[in-house]
Amino acid sequence: MFKLVIGNKAYSSWSLRPWLLMRQAGIPFEEILIPLYESGSTDAILQYAPTGKVPCLVDGSLTVWESLAICEFLAEEFPEKQLWPADRAVRAEVRSLSAEMHAGFTAIRHHCPMNVRRHVPGRSHPSEVGRDLARFSAIVESMRARFAASGPFLAGQFSVADAMFAPVATRCRTYGLRLPSRSQAWVDHILGLPAMQEWYAAAAEEPWVLPGNEPAEG
Ligand SMILES: N[C@@H](CCC(=O)N[C@@H](CS)C(=O)NCC(=O)O)C(=O)O
Fold first, then answer.
1. Does ligand 1 have an atom closer than 6 angstroms to the CB of 9?
2. Class of the CATH-defined domain 81-199
C-alpha cells in the first residue's frame, strides 16, 4: 500500500494537496504524520524524503516527493480516475494552473499561512496578497463559468487543480477573504467535502501548537 508522509494537518498546506487527491479519488494509503518544526522533525522526514520536507509518497522502493510530482505520479498510476481532465485543451489548462499554484501565489502563502484551526477575519493584508487573491478569483470565475454544467469543481469534475488550490480555500475561510460569488461557491464546495471535513476534524485534535500562531480566536 502507498505510504503518504505528511506534516501537521493544522498547518501543512503542501501535505493537504496529495492527501486530498488520494482521499477524494478513493486511493487507499497509509498516512505517516510527522509533526513539523520540532527538534527531530527534519531527521524523521529525511527517513522518507531526500528534501527533508513533506509531503512524500512511498510505494515500496519508490519515493516521490514534491506535491505536484506526487499528483502527477498518481494520475499516471490511476488513469481511470481522470485526475487530469480527458480533454486535451482542458488538461493543458488544468496542468498550467496546477503548476502556477505550485510555483506562485507566494504573497498569500507567506502572509496568510494555512492554519485550519484559526479564524481571524478582518485583518489588513499587504497589497500583494490582494493581487494573488485577484488572480485566484480570476482563475476560479473563468473555470466555473465555463465548466459549471459538468460539475462543481474547477474543470467540472474533480482534478489535480482542485487539490492544488484547496489550501487557498482554507485561507479564504481562516482570514475571511472576500471573493466573487463563483469563487466563494467553489471554496464552500471544497471545504464541504467529506475529506476536507475529515482533515479539519483531525487538525482540531492535534496537540502541537506553533508558538505565536494559535490564539483560539474562534
Ligand atoms: N515544494 C514542496 C514544498 C514542501 C514544503 O515546504 N513542505 C513544508 C510543510 S507544508 C515542510 O516540509 N516544511 C518543513 C521544513 O521546511 O523544515 C512541495 O510542493 O511539496
1. no
2. mainly alpha
Give the distance (Å) from ligand 1 centre to CA of residue 56: 10
**H or E element in which residue 51 lies:** none
Helices first, then strands: H and E counts in the chain: 9, 4
From 5, 53, 109, 170, mutation site for ligand 1 pocket: most ligand atoms within 8 A of C-beta: 53
Beta strand pairing status for 62-65 and 29-33? unpaired
Cβ–ligand 1 distance for 7 under 6 Å, the answer yes
Out of 9, 14, 114, mutate this one to test ligand 1's pocket (max ligand atoms within 8 Å of CB): namely 14
C-alpha grid cell, residue 118: 484559526
Q: Where are the domains of the chain?
A: 2-80, 81-199
For 136, the grid coordinates are 485566484
pLDDT in tens, the chain (218 residues): 999 999 999 999 999 999 999 999 999 999 999 999 999 999 999 999 999 999 999 999 999 999 999 999 999 999 999 999 999 999 999 999 999 999 999 999 999 999 999 999 999 999 999 999 999 999 999 999 999 999 999 999 999 999 999 999 999 999 999 999 999 999 999 999 999 999 999 999 999 998 766 544 43
For 59, the grid coordinates are: 510505494
| Beta bridge pairs of residue 58 | 3, 63
Secondary-structure class of domain 2-80 per CATH: alpha beta
Q: Which atom of ligand 1 is nearest to the CA of 41?
A: 17
Interatomic CA distance for residues 86 and 92, integer angstroms? 10
